[in-house]
Amino acid sequence: MTQRFLRVAIALVCLTATTAWNDASSAVAETTLGIGDKAPALDIEHYIHEDNGFGKVEKFEDGKVYIVEFWATWCGPCIQSMPHLVELQNKYRGEGVQIVSISDEDLETVQELMEQEYPGKEETFAEVTNAYTLTVDPDGSTTEDYMRAAGRNGIPASFLVGKTGLIEWIGHPMELDEPLADVLADRWDREAYKEQMKRQEQFQIAMQKVNQLAGSGKFEDALKVVKKVLEDMEGADDPRSNLIREQLTAFQYNLRLDSGDRSEEVMTFFRDQLAEAKKDARELTQFSYNMMASMQQGTDLGPLAGETIAALKDAVGTADEEVMPIMYVLIAQMNASMSNFDEAIANQKKAVETSTGRTKERMEQMLEQFEKMAAEEADGDQDAEGDKAAEKVDAAK
Fold it and tell me: What are phi and psi of 361, to 5 degrees?
């Protein structure tokens, strides 16, 4: 029962975590839209802002550059990306750039969010996002034409449409700066990026296989696949390939830890990572989430668990308003994984206190789950004590 509730709780954390910044582990679907393809026309039902100087986009005009971005009200990383989209739109407003952000939720849901105050700002979501084109397309037709066609399963996701109406780049909106600047300056190397994307897809396919093997407890086989991918990437020297190489190297150590390897080499690797992560609250959140996920899968972290919790406790008091509740959640989750329910409940209460809106509702749900888990644990202990007492009585007879 405890593990089932933990899985539910982790799913809730994923909705608000600041770390879901790519969909590299998503399933790779068959794609019909890629780099260099003609961008599908936008068939959008509702435009939220109609007084910001931008009109509806019924076709992509030659010479203009468009960013077609997909988001949702429940997606924490999407919310965090909004100020960056505002910054980009304002920076390039006079250079023929238009950002069109699309949610496939219903209009009422999005309008409800627009009326709320944006975290950390004295402005509503409507005021913050008024700089660019925010839209709602509840029938999901545009999502189908872009996200599904491109095999993208994670949001936020952005499609950069160049001056000739072709897809030039696909990725996370926080990584838009360089490709957008290069496209505007006519120095973007589409074919080189297309090759990078091909390697990324191969990486995703390999990671699916690795995750399947690791999920079946075949850690040695999973490590062999990772090693083979790294060998195949030898000679590739571009930012995306270097990032993949770095991720795979880290993943090798994760596999070793999950397999029960707590050698000095493995522990030193993670302690070095933790020391580096302590320098930034968001990096620490990412590291701690990974540790918590391993614990959820039954990995014994040894002293790393306590060291990670201690680092979170040291940092949470000075974290910003967006990260603070997630850090409390992680402290609660890790303690719950070790059946330290008093600590889990105390920190989950702090997560509730530091949250607002729908996030607070999710935090309250998780608190109820922890309280139920604690009660079940206590009932189990009482039953065990009762059984021991009965055994002693029987023995006395």
Answer: -60, -40
Tokens describing residue 21: 């910044």
pLDDT digits (tens, 9 = 90+) for 225-239: 888 888 877 877 777
Look at residue 9 and tell me whether its pLDDT is greater than 60: no
Phi-psi region of 140 (alpha: psi -120 to 50; beta: other; left: phi over 0): left
Pick the CATH number of 31-188 from 3.40.50.2000, 3.40.190.10, 3.40.50.300, 3.40.30.10: 3.40.30.10
Residue ranges in the chain assigned as alpha helix (H) = 2-16, 76-92, 107-114, 125-129, 141-143, 177-184, 190-215, 219-232, 239-258, 264-277, 281-296, 303-316, 324-337, 341-353, 357-396
Each residue's pLDDT tens digit, 36-64: 999 999 999 899 977 777 888 989 999 99
**Residue 104 pLDDT exceeds 90:** yes
Cα 169 from Cα 155, distance rounded (Å): 15
Q: What percent of the chain has pLDDT over 90?
A: 59
Model confidence pTM above 0.70? no
Count of beta carbons in the 10 Å neighbourhood of residue 74? 17
- Asked whether the beta carbons of 81 and 103 are under 8 A apart, the reply is no
The answer to whether 48 and 128 are in contact (CB under 8 A) is: no
**Which tokens hold the place of 19?**
């770390």
In the chain, where the domains are located: 1-23+278-380, 31-188, 189-261
User: Cα–Cα distance between 258 and 245 in angstroms, integer?
Assistant: 20
- CA angle in degrees (0–180, nearest 5) for 153-243-10: 45
Q: What angle do CA 247, 252, 257 make, to 5 degrees?
A: 120
In the numeric block, which tokens belong to residue 380? 């189990």
Residue-wise pLDDT tens digits, 257-283: 988 999 999 999 999 999 999 999 989
Total length of the chain: 397
Q: What is the pLDDT of residue 394?
A: 56
Does residue 133 sit in helix, strand or coil?
strand
